[in-house]
Amino acid sequence: MAFVMRRSAAVPLLVAVFGLAGCTDAESGLASPEDSRPAARTSVGSMVPTSDSSGSASSGIDSVDPCSLLTDSEVAAFGKYQEPNARQVGTARGCDWNAVRENAQQKLPLISFSVRDNVGVDGVVDLGTGLQRGEMDSGREVVRTTTTDHGCLIAMAVGEGARVDVVVDGVEPDQACDIASRIAEIIDPKLPMG
After folding, report:
1. How far is residue 26's CA from residue 140's CA, in Å, rounded to a whole number?
2. Where does the secretion signal sit in this chain (predicted)?
């Protein structure tokens, strides 16, 4: 079953925005969800135990390689993709999977991860449709935001001071969030709880 949150409504632009979103440790407050209905839950496999219960970023996130979070067969479930491309944006370690296109008019999803060692889900920036907070069945806190026309980000907490962003861009928000939710479900048991 896919991880689903309330419905609401990007490649280089989203990557740049998400890169800037994690560049500060300052918090000006907490955003409230637009809708107070509880988020749906996912059926997720086992959690990865950690030995650090402090919630700090030193609880294993520093060893997470974003390009190793999806296997070739897992990414193939979403289409035909080129080899993953590692990148660094600010302090975030990232990885992108670009779809193989037959022509420039094809709307195919870009899959991207950003591992943020120094900013948690409270640092997620609203991309235009509000911040929707939820929780995976494992207990992991998540925050979702989308642009109004394309792209979806699901930030997955790794303790209080770190997160992994799952970004799907290049397709309509509903499709992007469906894919991002399915990917979050796949990688959840691979991430430390913090």
Report:
1. 22
2. 1-26
